[in-house]
Amino acid sequence: MKLELRGITKRFGALVANDHIDLVVEPGEIHCLLGENGAGKSTLMNVLYGLYRAEEGEILLDDVPQHFTGPGDAMAAGIGMVHQHFMLIPVFTVAENVMLGHEKTNFGGRLNLTAARQQVREISSRFGFDIDPDALIEDLPVGVQQRVEIIKALSRDAQVLVFDEPTAVLTPQETDELMVIMRQLKAAGTSIVFITHKLREVREVADRITVIRLGKVVGEASPSATNTELASLMVGRPVELTVHKDPKIAGEAALVISHLSVIDHRGQLVVNDVSFEVKAGEILAIAGVQGNGQTELTEAIMGLQPRVTGSIVLDGIELRRESTRKVLDSGVGFVPEDRGEDGLIAGFTIAENLMLDRADGAPFVKAGALQLGSLAEFAEHKIVEFDIRAQGIGTHAGKLSGGNQQKVVLARELSRDLRLFVAAQPTRGLDVGSIEFVHSRIVATRDAGTPVIVVSTELDEVVALADRIAVMYRGEIVGIVPGTTPRDVLGLMMAGELPDSAEAAA
Ligand SMILES: Nc1ncnc2c1ncn2[C@@H]1O[C@H](COP(=O)(O)OP(=O)(O)OP(=O)(O)O)[C@@H](O)[C@H]1O
Ligand SMILES: [Mg+2]
Fold first, then answer.
1. What's the pTM value of the predicted model, to 2 decimals?
2. Does the Cβ of 17 fall within 6 Å of ligand 1?
3. What band does 208 get if pLDDT is binned at 50, 70 and 90?
4. Pocket of ligand 1, candidates 9, 43, 163, 430: which has the most ligand atoms within 8 Å of its Cβ, to mutate?
5. 14 CA distance to ligand 2 centroid (A)?
6. What is the DSSP code (8-state) at residue 136?
Protein backbone atom coordinates (compact mmCIF):
# COMPACT_ATOMS: atom_id res chain seq x y z
CA MET A 1 0.00 0.00 0.00
CA LYS A 2 1.24 3.48 -0.82
CA LEU A 3 1.38 5.90 2.09
CA GLU A 4 1.46 9.63 1.64
CA LEU A 5 1.67 12.31 4.30
CA ARG A 6 0.99 15.82 3.05
CA GLY A 7 1.78 18.96 4.99
CA ILE A 8 1.43 17.36 8.43
CA THR A 9 1.66 19.96 11.18
CA LYS A 10 1.43 19.02 14.84
CA ARG A 11 1.85 21.51 17.66
CA PHE A 12 2.16 21.04 21.40
CA GLY A 13 1.34 24.47 22.77
CA ALA A 14 3.89 26.80 21.28
CA LEU A 15 6.14 23.98 20.13
CA VAL A 16 5.82 22.91 16.49
CA ALA A 17 6.80 19.24 16.63
CA ASN A 18 5.93 18.61 12.97
CA ASP A 19 6.06 21.53 10.57
CA HIS A 20 4.37 20.83 7.21
CA ILE A 21 5.93 17.42 6.75
CA ASP A 22 5.60 15.64 3.41
CA LEU A 23 6.50 11.97 3.13
CA VAL A 24 5.76 9.28 0.55
CA VAL A 25 6.34 5.59 1.21
CA GLU A 26 5.87 3.33 -1.80
CA PRO A 27 4.55 -0.24 -1.53
CA GLY A 28 7.33 -2.66 -0.67
CA GLU A 29 9.71 0.13 0.30
CA ILE A 30 11.78 0.43 3.47
CA HIS A 31 11.82 4.12 4.21
CA CYS A 32 14.13 5.30 6.96
CA LEU A 33 13.35 8.36 9.04
CA LEU A 34 16.49 9.92 10.42
CA GLY A 35 16.71 12.84 12.76
CA GLU A 36 18.07 14.17 16.01
CA ASN A 37 16.44 13.52 19.38
CA GLY A 38 13.28 15.57 19.50
CA ALA A 39 13.22 16.16 15.72
CA GLY A 40 9.62 14.96 15.56
CA LYS A 41 9.87 11.41 14.23
CA SER A 42 7.75 9.65 16.87
CA THR A 43 5.23 12.47 16.80
CA LEU A 44 4.79 12.10 13.05
CA MET A 45 4.28 8.37 13.41
CA ASN A 46 1.82 8.88 16.25
CA VAL A 47 -0.17 11.17 13.97
CA LEU A 48 -0.14 8.47 11.31
CA TYR A 49 -1.29 5.88 13.86
CA GLY A 50 -4.17 8.04 15.00
CA LEU A 51 -2.75 8.68 18.47
CA TYR A 52 -2.40 12.42 17.82
CA ARG A 53 -4.58 14.67 15.69
CA ALA A 54 -2.58 16.91 13.38
CA GLU A 55 -3.64 20.56 13.21
CA GLU A 56 -2.97 20.57 9.48
CA GLY A 57 -2.28 18.10 6.72
CA GLU A 58 -3.55 14.92 5.18
CA ILE A 59 -2.87 11.21 5.33
CA LEU A 60 -3.49 9.26 2.12
CA LEU A 61 -3.45 5.50 1.61
CA ASP A 62 -3.35 4.46 -2.04
CA ASP A 63 -4.27 8.06 -2.84
CA VAL A 64 -7.43 7.99 -0.69
CA PRO A 65 -7.57 10.61 2.11
CA GLN A 66 -8.00 9.09 5.57
CA HIS A 67 -9.56 10.50 8.73
CA PHE A 68 -8.35 8.72 11.82
CA THR A 69 -9.92 9.49 15.16
CA GLY A 70 -7.85 6.88 17.00
CA PRO A 71 -5.50 3.92 16.54
CA GLY A 72 -8.50 1.67 15.88
CA ASP A 73 -9.17 3.57 12.65
CA ALA A 74 -5.53 3.47 11.62
CA MET A 75 -5.33 -0.26 12.26
CA ALA A 76 -8.53 -0.89 10.36
CA ALA A 77 -7.03 1.02 7.43
CA GLY A 78 -3.97 -1.26 7.45
CA ILE A 79 -1.43 0.60 9.55
CA GLY A 80 0.56 -1.20 12.23
CA MET A 81 3.10 0.16 14.66
CA VAL A 82 5.87 -1.31 16.76
CA HIS A 83 6.40 1.39 19.38
CA GLN A 84 9.58 2.80 20.89
CA HIS A 85 8.20 1.58 24.22
CA PHE A 86 6.34 -1.70 23.85
CA MET A 87 2.64 -1.72 24.47
CA LEU A 88 2.24 -5.37 25.45
CA ILE A 89 0.72 -6.49 28.73
CA PRO A 90 3.42 -8.43 30.60
CA VAL A 91 1.14 -10.76 32.60
CA PHE A 92 -0.86 -11.84 29.53
CA THR A 93 0.16 -14.58 27.11
CA VAL A 94 1.31 -13.99 23.55
CA ALA A 95 -2.08 -15.03 22.15
CA GLU A 96 -3.98 -12.87 24.64
CA ASN A 97 -1.91 -9.85 23.66
CA VAL A 98 -2.45 -10.50 19.97
CA MET A 99 -6.17 -10.82 20.61
CA LEU A 100 -6.48 -7.61 22.64
CA GLY A 101 -8.59 -5.00 20.96
CA HIS A 102 -9.15 -7.27 18.00
CA GLU A 103 -12.46 -6.71 16.23
CA LYS A 104 -12.54 -10.10 14.52
CA THR A 105 -14.24 -13.20 16.07
CA ASN A 106 -15.42 -11.30 19.07
CA PHE A 107 -17.85 -13.98 20.32
CA GLY A 108 -16.65 -14.51 23.87
CA GLY A 109 -13.14 -15.07 25.12
CA ARG A 110 -12.72 -18.74 24.40
CA LEU A 111 -13.29 -18.73 20.66
CA ASN A 112 -11.32 -15.55 20.37
CA LEU A 113 -8.31 -17.06 22.08
CA THR A 114 -8.34 -20.19 19.94
CA ALA A 115 -8.36 -18.03 16.82
CA ALA A 116 -5.58 -15.86 18.22
CA ARG A 117 -3.43 -18.92 19.04
CA GLN A 118 -3.90 -20.19 15.52
CA GLN A 119 -2.97 -16.81 14.10
CA VAL A 120 0.20 -16.65 16.19
CA ARG A 121 1.21 -20.07 14.86
CA GLU A 122 0.39 -19.15 11.28
CA ILE A 123 2.29 -15.89 11.22
CA SER A 124 5.18 -17.40 13.17
CA SER A 125 5.61 -20.14 10.62
CA ARG A 126 5.49 -17.65 7.79
CA PHE A 127 8.46 -15.79 9.25
CA GLY A 128 10.24 -18.69 10.89
CA PHE A 129 9.57 -17.38 14.43
CA ASP A 130 9.66 -19.87 17.23
CA ILE A 131 6.96 -18.49 19.51
CA ASP A 132 4.71 -20.35 21.92
CA PRO A 133 1.27 -18.67 21.84
CA ASP A 134 0.77 -19.55 25.52
CA ALA A 135 4.03 -18.09 26.82
CA LEU A 136 3.72 -15.13 29.18
CA ILE A 137 5.12 -11.91 27.73
CA GLU A 138 7.15 -11.15 30.87
CA ASP A 139 9.03 -14.42 30.46
CA LEU A 140 10.16 -13.62 26.92
CA PRO A 141 13.38 -11.86 25.94
CA VAL A 142 12.94 -8.36 24.52
CA GLY A 143 13.68 -9.47 20.97
CA VAL A 144 10.89 -12.04 21.12
CA GLN A 145 8.47 -9.53 22.66
CA GLN A 146 9.12 -7.34 19.68
CA ARG A 147 8.17 -10.20 17.36
CA VAL A 148 4.91 -10.46 19.24
CA GLU A 149 4.31 -6.80 18.43
CA ILE A 150 5.00 -7.59 14.78
CA ILE A 151 2.62 -10.58 14.88
CA LYS A 152 0.00 -8.38 16.51
CA ALA A 153 0.23 -5.86 13.68
CA LEU A 154 0.24 -8.52 10.97
CA SER A 155 -2.75 -10.26 12.52
CA ARG A 156 -4.68 -7.13 11.59
CA ASP A 157 -3.44 -7.28 7.99
CA ALA A 158 -1.14 -4.29 8.40
CA GLN A 159 0.18 -3.19 5.03
CA VAL A 160 2.07 -0.22 6.33
CA LEU A 161 4.31 -1.06 9.28
CA VAL A 162 6.04 1.52 11.40
CA PHE A 163 9.07 0.53 13.47
CA ASP A 164 10.03 3.24 15.96
CA GLU A 165 13.59 2.56 17.11
CA PRO A 166 13.08 -1.20 17.22
CA THR A 167 16.79 -1.99 17.48
CA ALA A 168 17.57 0.23 20.49
CA VAL A 169 16.82 -2.69 22.80
CA LEU A 170 18.02 -5.58 20.65
CA THR A 171 21.23 -7.58 20.73
CA PRO A 172 23.36 -7.48 17.56
CA GLN A 173 22.06 -10.90 16.59
CA GLU A 174 18.43 -9.96 17.19
CA THR A 175 19.05 -6.84 15.10
CA ASP A 176 20.34 -8.94 12.20
CA GLU A 177 17.28 -11.14 12.52
CA LEU A 178 14.97 -8.13 12.48
CA MET A 179 16.65 -6.91 9.27
CA VAL A 180 15.83 -10.28 7.70
CA ILE A 181 12.21 -9.97 8.86
CA MET A 182 11.94 -6.46 7.41
CA ARG A 183 13.24 -7.70 4.06
CA GLN A 184 10.69 -10.54 4.11
CA LEU A 185 7.89 -8.07 4.81
CA LYS A 186 9.12 -5.82 2.05
CA ALA A 187 9.20 -8.75 -0.39
CA ALA A 188 5.56 -9.40 0.53
CA GLY A 189 4.73 -5.81 -0.46
CA THR A 190 4.50 -4.26 3.01
CA SER A 191 5.51 -0.60 3.18
CA ILE A 192 7.87 0.00 6.08
CA VAL A 193 8.83 3.14 7.96
CA PHE A 194 11.96 2.43 9.98
CA ILE A 195 13.28 4.83 12.62
CA THR A 196 16.77 4.28 14.01
CA HIS A 197 19.78 6.26 15.19
CA LYS A 198 22.19 3.59 14.01
CA LEU A 199 23.53 4.60 10.66
CA ARG A 200 24.90 1.16 9.88
CA GLU A 201 21.36 -0.23 9.98
CA VAL A 202 20.11 2.55 7.75
CA ARG A 203 22.69 1.81 5.12
CA GLU A 204 21.92 -1.88 5.35
CA VAL A 205 18.17 -1.87 4.66
CA ALA A 206 17.00 1.56 3.51
CA ASP A 207 15.56 2.03 0.05
CA ARG A 208 15.04 5.72 0.76
CA ILE A 209 16.01 8.01 3.61
CA THR A 210 14.22 11.14 4.76
CA VAL A 211 15.95 13.39 7.25
CA ILE A 212 13.96 15.50 9.72
CA ARG A 213 15.42 18.34 11.76
CA LEU A 214 13.50 20.58 14.18
CA GLY A 215 10.17 19.31 12.89
CA LYS A 216 10.90 19.90 9.20
CA VAL A 217 12.00 17.64 6.38
CA VAL A 218 15.49 18.85 5.52
CA GLY A 219 16.16 16.47 2.68
CA GLU A 220 16.52 13.00 1.31
CA ALA A 221 19.73 11.05 1.54
CA SER A 222 21.01 8.18 -0.50
CA PRO A 223 21.48 4.82 1.25
CA SER A 224 25.01 4.86 -0.14
CA ALA A 225 25.85 8.06 1.80
CA THR A 226 28.68 7.72 4.30
CA ASN A 227 28.12 7.83 8.07
CA THR A 228 29.70 11.26 8.22
CA GLU A 229 27.42 12.60 5.49
CA LEU A 230 24.29 11.21 7.12
CA ALA A 231 25.34 12.46 10.54
CA SER A 232 25.98 16.01 9.43
CA LEU A 233 22.71 16.16 7.46
CA MET A 234 20.87 15.08 10.61
CA VAL A 235 22.57 17.37 13.06
CA GLY A 236 23.23 20.28 10.70
CA ARG A 237 26.93 20.42 11.54
CA PRO A 238 29.92 18.11 11.15
CA VAL A 239 29.97 15.37 13.80
CA GLU A 240 33.03 13.63 15.17
CA LEU A 241 32.21 9.96 15.16
CA THR A 242 35.25 8.96 17.18
CA VAL A 243 35.98 9.87 20.79
CA HIS A 244 39.14 11.82 21.59
CA LYS A 245 40.77 10.22 24.54
CA ASP A 246 44.19 10.75 26.02
CA PRO A 247 45.96 7.75 27.48
CA LYS A 248 44.69 7.13 30.98
CA ILE A 249 46.56 8.21 34.06
CA ALA A 250 44.89 5.82 36.43
CA GLY A 251 45.47 6.01 40.13
CA GLU A 252 44.82 3.58 42.96
CA ALA A 253 42.06 0.97 42.89
CA ALA A 254 39.03 2.96 44.05
CA LEU A 255 36.31 0.37 43.66
CA VAL A 256 37.11 -3.16 44.68
CA ILE A 257 34.51 -5.83 44.06
CA SER A 258 35.23 -9.27 45.48
CA HIS A 259 33.37 -12.54 45.05
CA LEU A 260 30.12 -10.80 44.27
CA SER A 261 27.13 -13.02 43.59
CA VAL A 262 23.51 -12.04 42.99
CA ILE A 263 20.41 -14.19 43.16
CA ASP A 264 17.47 -12.62 41.32
CA HIS A 265 13.76 -12.57 42.17
CA ARG A 266 13.27 -15.92 40.45
CA GLY A 267 15.96 -17.53 42.57
CA GLN A 268 18.49 -17.77 39.73
CA LEU A 269 22.17 -17.13 40.29
CA VAL A 270 22.58 -14.28 37.79
CA VAL A 271 25.96 -12.92 38.91
CA ASN A 272 28.36 -15.67 39.86
CA ASP A 273 31.41 -14.92 41.99
CA VAL A 274 32.61 -11.82 40.17
CA SER A 275 35.74 -9.94 41.25
CA PHE A 276 37.34 -6.86 39.69
CA GLU A 277 38.76 -3.44 40.48
CA VAL A 278 38.28 -0.04 38.93
CA LYS A 279 41.02 2.51 39.42
CA ALA A 280 40.55 6.22 39.93
CA GLY A 281 40.64 7.81 36.48
CA GLU A 282 39.85 4.65 34.60
CA ILE A 283 36.93 3.52 32.46
CA LEU A 284 36.11 -0.14 32.85
CA ALA A 285 33.61 -1.21 30.22
CA ILE A 286 31.48 -4.25 30.88
CA ALA A 287 30.67 -5.87 27.57
CA GLY A 288 28.42 -8.78 26.82
CA VAL A 289 25.21 -9.82 25.18
CA GLN A 290 22.21 -8.39 27.05
CA GLY A 291 21.02 -10.62 29.86
CA ASN A 292 24.33 -12.07 31.03
CA GLY A 293 24.24 -10.51 34.47
CA GLN A 294 25.42 -6.97 33.65
CA THR A 295 22.18 -5.33 34.76
CA GLU A 296 22.09 -7.18 38.06
CA LEU A 297 25.75 -6.40 38.67
CA THR A 298 25.15 -2.65 38.41
CA GLU A 299 21.99 -2.96 40.48
CA ALA A 300 23.93 -4.79 43.17
CA ILE A 301 26.43 -1.93 43.35
CA MET A 302 23.52 0.50 43.68
CA GLY A 303 21.85 -1.44 46.47
CA LEU A 304 18.93 -2.34 44.23
CA GLN A 305 19.29 -6.11 44.51
CA PRO A 306 18.18 -7.75 47.76
CA ARG A 307 20.12 -11.02 47.57
CA VAL A 308 23.80 -10.19 47.20
CA THR A 309 26.88 -11.84 48.69
CA GLY A 310 30.52 -10.77 48.49
CA SER A 311 31.82 -7.26 48.92
CA ILE A 312 31.70 -3.89 47.17
CA VAL A 313 34.27 -1.50 48.60
CA LEU A 314 34.48 2.11 47.43
CA ASP A 315 37.38 4.19 48.76
CA GLY A 316 37.76 1.75 51.63
CA ILE A 317 34.09 1.73 52.62
CA GLU A 318 31.89 -1.35 52.29
CA LEU A 319 28.73 -0.50 50.32
CA ARG A 320 27.20 -3.92 50.08
CA ARG A 321 24.60 -3.69 52.79
CA GLU A 322 23.82 -0.02 52.21
CA SER A 323 20.55 1.36 50.89
CA THR A 324 20.40 2.93 47.45
CA ARG A 325 19.94 6.31 49.14
CA LYS A 326 23.19 5.83 51.04
CA VAL A 327 25.04 4.64 47.92
CA LEU A 328 23.91 7.72 45.98
CA ASP A 329 24.81 9.97 48.91
CA SER A 330 28.28 8.52 49.06
CA GLY A 331 28.90 9.99 45.61
CA VAL A 332 27.89 7.27 43.19
CA GLY A 333 26.31 8.52 39.97
CA PHE A 334 24.03 6.04 38.25
CA VAL A 335 22.45 5.92 34.81
CA PRO A 336 20.00 3.00 34.88
CA GLU A 337 19.35 0.90 31.83
CA ASP A 338 15.64 1.62 31.83
CA ARG A 339 15.29 5.38 32.09
CA GLY A 340 11.50 5.33 32.06
CA GLU A 341 11.28 2.87 34.92
CA ASP A 342 14.19 3.83 37.18
CA GLY A 343 15.70 7.08 35.95
CA LEU A 344 12.89 9.59 35.79
CA ILE A 345 9.50 10.46 37.17
CA ALA A 346 7.31 11.11 34.15
CA GLY A 347 4.87 13.40 35.94
CA PHE A 348 7.65 15.61 37.33
CA THR A 349 9.11 18.52 35.41
CA ILE A 350 12.60 18.55 33.95
CA ALA A 351 13.73 20.81 36.81
CA GLU A 352 12.27 18.46 39.43
CA ASN A 353 13.86 15.45 37.80
CA LEU A 354 17.21 17.22 37.76
CA MET A 355 17.13 17.59 41.55
CA LEU A 356 15.55 14.22 42.38
CA ASP A 357 18.21 12.79 44.62
CA ARG A 358 19.26 16.14 46.03
CA ALA A 359 15.94 17.11 47.51
CA ASP A 360 17.21 17.10 51.07
CA GLY A 361 19.99 19.63 51.07
CA ALA A 362 21.91 22.52 49.53
CA PRO A 363 21.87 24.11 47.06
CA PHE A 364 18.21 23.48 46.27
CA VAL A 365 16.82 23.13 49.76
CA LYS A 366 17.81 25.50 52.57
CA ALA A 367 16.28 25.34 56.03
CA GLY A 368 13.60 23.06 54.64
CA ALA A 369 12.56 25.47 51.90
CA LEU A 370 12.91 24.72 48.22
CA GLN A 371 15.08 27.36 46.56
CA LEU A 372 13.09 27.76 43.36
CA GLY A 373 15.41 30.42 42.02
CA SER A 374 18.54 28.35 42.26
CA LEU A 375 16.77 25.26 40.94
CA ALA A 376 15.51 27.19 37.91
CA GLU A 377 18.94 28.62 37.24
CA PHE A 378 20.54 25.19 37.51
CA ALA A 379 17.93 23.59 35.24
CA GLU A 380 18.21 26.34 32.59
CA HIS A 381 21.94 25.82 32.56
CA LYS A 382 21.67 22.03 32.19
CA ILE A 383 19.17 22.31 29.35
CA VAL A 384 21.70 24.32 27.38
CA GLU A 385 24.71 22.27 28.43
CA PHE A 386 23.14 18.91 27.58
CA ASP A 387 21.13 20.24 24.63
CA ILE A 388 17.83 18.98 26.08
CA ARG A 389 15.18 19.82 23.50
CA ALA A 390 12.07 20.93 25.32
CA GLN A 391 9.79 23.91 25.68
CA GLY A 392 11.29 24.74 29.05
CA ILE A 393 12.34 23.53 32.47
CA GLY A 394 8.68 23.15 33.45
CA THR A 395 8.00 20.50 30.78
CA HIS A 396 7.07 17.14 32.25
CA ALA A 397 9.70 14.48 31.64
CA GLY A 398 7.05 12.13 30.24
CA LYS A 399 6.43 14.56 27.40
CA LEU A 400 10.04 14.55 26.23
CA SER A 401 11.25 12.54 23.27
CA GLY A 402 13.03 9.31 24.18
CA GLY A 403 16.52 10.66 23.65
CA ASN A 404 15.82 13.83 25.57
CA GLN A 405 14.61 11.85 28.58
CA GLN A 406 17.95 10.06 28.54
CA LYS A 407 19.74 13.42 28.47
CA VAL A 408 17.90 14.56 31.62
CA VAL A 409 19.13 11.50 33.51
CA LEU A 410 22.68 12.03 32.27
CA ALA A 411 22.58 15.73 33.11
CA ARG A 412 21.49 14.99 36.69
CA GLU A 413 23.99 12.23 37.34
CA LEU A 414 26.95 13.98 35.74
CA SER A 415 26.32 17.21 37.67
CA ARG A 416 27.20 15.92 41.11
CA ASP A 417 30.52 15.43 42.83
CA LEU A 418 31.22 11.85 41.96
CA ARG A 419 33.43 9.24 43.53
CA LEU A 420 32.15 6.57 41.15
CA PHE A 421 30.11 6.77 37.97
CA VAL A 422 28.10 3.74 36.83
CA ALA A 423 26.38 4.07 33.49
CA ALA A 424 24.28 1.33 31.92
CA GLN A 425 23.64 1.81 28.20
CA PRO A 426 24.39 5.54 28.57
CA THR A 427 23.67 6.42 24.95
CA ARG A 428 20.68 4.17 24.26
CA GLY A 429 18.28 6.07 22.02
CA LEU A 430 20.59 9.05 21.55
CA ASP A 431 21.33 10.59 18.16
CA VAL A 432 24.88 10.68 16.84
CA GLY A 433 25.51 14.26 17.90
CA SER A 434 24.38 13.55 21.45
CA ILE A 435 26.45 10.37 21.62
CA GLU A 436 29.51 12.43 20.74
CA PHE A 437 28.72 14.80 23.60
CA VAL A 438 27.93 12.13 26.19
CA HIS A 439 31.06 10.17 25.34
CA SER A 440 33.18 13.27 25.77
CA ARG A 441 31.53 13.91 29.16
CA ILE A 442 32.23 10.35 30.29
CA VAL A 443 35.87 10.71 29.27
CA ALA A 444 36.02 14.05 31.11
CA THR A 445 34.64 12.37 34.23
CA ARG A 446 37.43 9.82 33.98
CA ASP A 447 40.01 12.54 33.40
CA ALA A 448 38.82 14.25 36.58
CA GLY A 449 39.98 11.13 38.41
CA THR A 450 36.65 9.37 38.88
CA PRO A 451 36.44 5.62 38.40
CA VAL A 452 33.86 4.84 35.72
CA ILE A 453 31.94 1.68 34.86
CA VAL A 454 30.18 1.66 31.52
CA VAL A 455 27.91 -1.26 30.75
CA SER A 456 27.15 -1.49 27.08
CA THR A 457 25.91 -4.05 24.62
CA GLU A 458 27.23 -1.84 21.80
CA LEU A 459 30.73 -2.92 20.87
CA ASP A 460 31.32 0.44 19.18
CA GLU A 461 30.69 2.16 22.47
CA VAL A 462 32.81 -0.29 24.47
CA VAL A 463 35.75 0.09 22.12
CA ALA A 464 35.39 3.88 21.99
CA LEU A 465 35.39 4.40 25.76
CA ALA A 466 37.11 1.56 27.56
CA ASP A 467 40.53 1.59 29.13
CA ARG A 468 39.89 -2.00 30.09
CA ILE A 469 37.06 -4.33 29.11
CA ALA A 470 35.44 -6.99 31.29
CA VAL A 471 33.32 -9.38 29.28
CA MET A 472 30.40 -11.07 31.03
CA TYR A 473 28.87 -14.35 30.00
CA ARG A 474 26.24 -16.26 31.97
CA GLY A 475 26.87 -14.27 35.12
CA GLU A 476 30.63 -14.66 35.11
CA ILE A 477 33.47 -12.49 33.94
CA VAL A 478 35.11 -14.39 31.09
CA GLY A 479 38.16 -12.16 31.17
CA ILE A 480 39.36 -8.59 31.63
CA VAL A 481 41.31 -7.34 28.64
CA PRO A 482 42.84 -4.05 27.43
CA GLY A 483 40.62 -1.49 25.71
CA THR A 484 42.55 -2.08 22.50
CA THR A 485 41.47 -5.72 22.22
CA PRO A 486 40.27 -6.51 18.68
CA ARG A 487 36.55 -6.93 18.15
CA ASP A 488 36.75 -10.52 16.95
CA VAL A 489 38.40 -11.48 20.23
CA LEU A 490 35.70 -9.61 22.16
CA GLY A 491 33.08 -11.38 20.06
CA LEU A 492 34.48 -14.77 21.06
CA MET A 493 34.57 -13.73 24.70
CA MET A 494 30.95 -12.61 24.51
CA ALA A 495 30.16 -16.17 23.47
CA GLY A 496 31.97 -17.45 26.55
CA GLU A 497 35.41 -18.30 25.15
CA LEU A 498 38.68 -16.78 26.30
CA PRO A 499 41.27 -16.94 23.52
CA ASP A 500 44.89 -17.55 24.67
CA SER A 501 46.02 -14.23 23.23
CA ALA A 502 43.47 -12.35 25.35
CA GLU A 503 44.46 -14.19 28.48
CA ALA A 504 48.08 -13.27 27.95
CA ALA A 505 47.21 -9.60 27.38
CA ALA A 506 45.16 -9.30 30.55
N1 LIG B 1 2.63 14.67 24.28
C2 LIG B 1 3.49 15.69 24.13
N3 LIG B 1 3.31 16.87 24.76
C4 LIG B 1 4.17 17.89 24.61
N5 LIG B 1 5.28 17.84 23.84
C6 LIG B 1 5.53 16.70 23.19
C7 LIG B 1 4.67 15.55 23.31
N8 LIG B 1 5.17 14.56 22.56
C9 LIG B 1 6.31 15.04 22.00
N10 LIG B 1 6.52 16.34 22.36
C11 LIG B 1 7.63 17.18 21.93
O12 LIG B 1 7.70 17.16 20.52
C13 LIG B 1 9.04 17.14 20.06
C14 LIG B 1 9.26 15.96 19.14
O15 LIG B 1 9.29 14.78 19.92
P16 LIG B 1 9.39 13.33 19.28
O17 LIG B 1 9.12 12.36 20.35
O18 LIG B 1 8.55 13.26 18.06
O19 LIG B 1 10.93 13.29 18.85
P20 LIG B 1 11.76 12.11 18.15
O21 LIG B 1 12.23 12.61 16.83
O22 LIG B 1 10.97 10.86 18.14
O23 LIG B 1 13.03 12.00 19.12
P24 LIG B 1 13.84 10.71 19.72
O25 LIG B 1 14.88 10.37 18.69
O26 LIG B 1 14.51 11.26 20.93
O27 LIG B 1 12.88 9.63 20.01
C28 LIG B 1 9.91 17.13 21.32
O29 LIG B 1 10.36 18.44 21.56
C30 LIG B 1 8.97 16.65 22.41
O31 LIG B 1 9.33 17.19 23.65
MG1 LIG C 1 11.15 9.01 19.17
1. 0.85
2. yes
3. very high
4. 43
5. 19
6. B
